[in-house]
Model the fold of this input.
Amino acid sequence: AAETRFTVPPIVSENGIQSGMSVPMLSGNEVVGAMFVYSREHRLFTGAEKTSLSLIANQTAIALKSAEQYEAIERKRAYLNALFEASKAITGRFALEPKEVLNCIVRQAMECVIGSQAPAIGFGVVHRYYEATDELVIESAYSYQGSPDMSDWIGQRMFLGAGRISICGRTVKTRRPQLVRDVTRDRDYVEYDSRVKSQVTAPLLDQDKVIGVISLAYTEVGRKFTADQIELL
Done:
């Protein structure tokens, strides 16, 4: 076989290792890693040894994939449970005033999406979209983790004409969720609170019609969200 040259890892040079063998870790046709064995002696590894290492490596790959699948199932179960709890809380308040129902929806969205990884301050907002005037109006605002009162936000209007239309406005126009890890770098962001550093939004859809936007904003840059969390929102 042709000689393959590579940078010697520190574990080799620091421990006097003279020879080694590696095999891919295969789960079906997918390579999920590599397994190495080393020796402090110069030696040739036999075909039987290579076969044995490959069997061990592939069993390890299967175990790793099974663990990943289990974790994915557990995450999905947690999200579905959160969604179920949110639905119960929301439907249980339909006898309340619309504003109180919206407040419940925003609060449940914050708790479901953020969970135990809440930042020091977070904001949740529901905008209603009026197509006739092409504007967004804040219908509900909720502060998370001891944020100041946001009652003065209610009723604020934003027209989506020319120029920067805001991240929520872009959500309306694209009809797709938006994830912005640093709002200061976003071309459409319109500042409404200097503490906001990152934001995730989702359109409120009545069949094919956008009737509003739900938005969660945070005081930390680079907040990471999984695809499942965005789907949950």
In short: The first helix runs from residue 10 to 13. The beta strands are 19-27, 30-39, 122-130, 135-144, 157-159, 178-180, 198-206, 209-218. The chain has five helices and eight strands.
